[in-house]
Amino acid sequence: xxxxxxxxxxQRPPAARRARRSSAPARGRRQRETRAxxxxxxxxxxxxxxxxxxxxxxxVVLGFFWIDGFGNxxxxxxxxxxxxxxxxxxxxxAVVTLIYLVTLVPLIFVTGLGLALLVQQKFPAxxxxxxxxxxPYVVSIVVVAMVWQFMLTDRTGVIASVLAWIxxxxxxxxxxxxxxxxxVIVVTIWLQMGYYMIIFLAGLQDIPAELYEAARIDGAGPWxxxxxxxxxxxxxxxxxxxxxxxxxxxTGGLDMIFVLTSGGPANSTSLLIFYIYQQAFLFGxxxxxxxxxSVLVAILLIISAAMFVVTRGGRFTHDD
Length: 320
Fold this sequence. Notes:
Organism: Brachybacterium alimentarium
Main location: membrane
InterPro entries: ABC_transporter_permease (IPR051393), MetI-like (IPR000515), MetI-like_sf (IPR035906)
Structural class: mainly alpha
Strand content: under 5%
Strand order of the largest sheet: 1-2
Domain ABC transmembrane type-1: 94-307
CATH class of the largest domain: Mainly Alpha
Keywords: Cell membrane, Membrane, Transmembrane, Transmembrane helix, Transport
Mean pLDDT: 83
Shape: flat
């Protein structure tokens, strides 16, 4: 009876012994891969901690102080946030930022995707066209803004001269509150569309060509293939573009606004990021600027978290 209950080690089935011997190297390989992954991620994680997380926490803390820029600190509690709620210029900048965001992000998405679909086709000089479309993104934003400012200058600018030639002179693109924000949006799209074109192009090239061929055989037209194949399989790329463009639009418009309009005319292009710059470096109110910055970051985090929840991390609602 005891020989049947406790099988000696030498009498164990060969398959069980092989499984035990093979599992140990597999565990060791997984551990080595985990350590290697942690080492590769460590520099990026440390950089995010030092240059992103700590400044965010510091901004929240400084928002509870009055700071004059000369080393003088005075704890004032929530006075900066109360002042923010009663500041009409803050709310004006918030509205301008919202208009800028809800207009620019969809246009960047559509433009980048449309260009990617165009340059995905094979035709002569397609590589040159891709490079030309991407080139503005690698140029300094200040240089781009100065060139566009020169072209849009009243009477002497290239665009103004062309409009005068076709009897449409008298339009001040940067000096009229009706046109200034729209002009900044157009220039920003021209600057960034090549970058997002490359991202969408990478996503398009990952879609198997066999799916399109099968759809053609089944009689699906171009729109049906785009709606049933391209858009669902581009969902992770689309999520990345929407998220990164939103953050870039809200936090990266300072240089463009500073050179083109300086927040004018009549504060019609004064984004929140530009208002933060004004409070911190023109008026010397660093505590108030930090409070506005912390609110802006909190709003971005809430919107990003909502996008993750709604789209299920970029998978949207497609389960098939």
